[in-house]
Amino acid sequence: SEKGLEFCYQCDEFPCLKLAPCVDRAQEIPHSSKVYNLLLLQKLGTKKWLQYGDMLWKQYWQGKKPRPGADIEV
User: Fold this and answer.
1) Which of 25, 33, 34, 35, by CA, is between 20 and 30 Å from 49?
2) Alpha-carbon distance 72 to 45, whole Å?
3) 43 belongs to a structural domain
4) What is the dihedral of CA 22, 23, 29, 35, to 10 degrees?
5) 72 lies in a domain?
6) Residue 68 lies in a domain
7) How many structural domains are present in the chain?
8) Residue 12 falls within a domain, yes or no?
9) What do you get for the CA distance between the two ends of the chain, in Å?
10) Could you give the CA distance from residue 9 to residue 5 in angstroms, rounded to a whole number?
11) 11-35 confidence digits (pLDDT tens)
12) What is the pLDDT of residues 39-74, one digit of tens each?
């Protein structure tokens, strides 16, 4: 990146307005929420986040999306 960082969450300006339009229709298309995914990546680390992402994708395509405001088990 232009700042020499690997992920957006490492930046002092995170979250910035560059990510604002990325949550459009997040209720219908949860994988479009980049800020949410970056925060999960920060919390879990890359390896766990990739494993968790696989589980979320499988649930999403089976119609099992998390409810807004629900706790997420990690």
Assistant:
1) 25
2) 16
3) yes
4) 80
5) no
6) no
7) 1
8) yes
9) 29
10) 9
11) 888 877 677 655 566 666 655 667 7
12) 888 888 999 988 887 887 777 777 766 555 555 554
